[in-house]
């Protein structure tokens, strides 16, 4: 077990929880899709897992020494540091030398070689997103948490990211991916967490969602839509 979340509620104001009964486990080598309508609480849940959001009742357990990489929904860059300096600062914070890692290969993979000495605050949105991906990979995380990773990426970078995540999972690392791209989630993820109606609607692989939604051959979007409309969670 990498991480076990058991939240009775997650809130900004305790009197009005945005989510109730969010209970799931992340195991080694799992690629989990976190799905929910706009405002359903995906980013807040992610922030709670990362310790960037405090408001919750319940518990969160992590494996000792768990290394988490985070690709945020909106890139966060320092104005006064070049791309290369971002890499070196991030590496130093993990007591690593950036150039002793596989960072060169990642820079090539995302076609960012030319950008190394430029300032990321002058990058396009997609280039900033690539920087976030490379930074998140730098400490070789056991669990990669990615929030809407495909926003702003060109089709080549999308493929590069999907290939990278596929390799990571094949090597026993885990991914929690928040996305609105249900087709991609269905194709790549082996398990899902569905949020809606201020709660966790269902959790598990597609066959579990099909069982809970009572749609034996339903696609992910069919199950999600049904559960979203009925607001049901299997007891
Ligand atoms: N800082 C905040 N203070 C109070 N409420 C907030 C804050 N940030 C988010 N919320 C509320 O929490 C709820 C969940 O927001 P969140 O951003 O987690 O949703 P989301 O599922 O990630 O949405 P989207 O798909 O649009 O990115 C929303 O009702 C939102 O208005």
TrEMBL record:
GO terms for MF: ATP binding; ATP hydrolysis activity
Domain ABC transporter: 1-222
CDD domains for this protein: ABC_DR_subfamily_A
SMART domains listed in its UniProt record: AAA
Any Pfam family: ABC_tran
PROSITE patterns referenced in this protein's UniProt entry, alphabetically: ABC_TRANSPORTER_1, ABC_TRANSPORTER_2
Domain of life per record: Bacteria
Presence of the UniProt keyword Transport in the record: yes
Keyword line: ATP-binding, Nucleotide-binding, Transport
UniProt xrefs under Gene3D superfamilies: P-loop containing nucleotide triphosphate hydrolases
Protein's recorded name: ABC-2 type transport system ATP-binding protein
Organism: Aureibacillus halotolerans
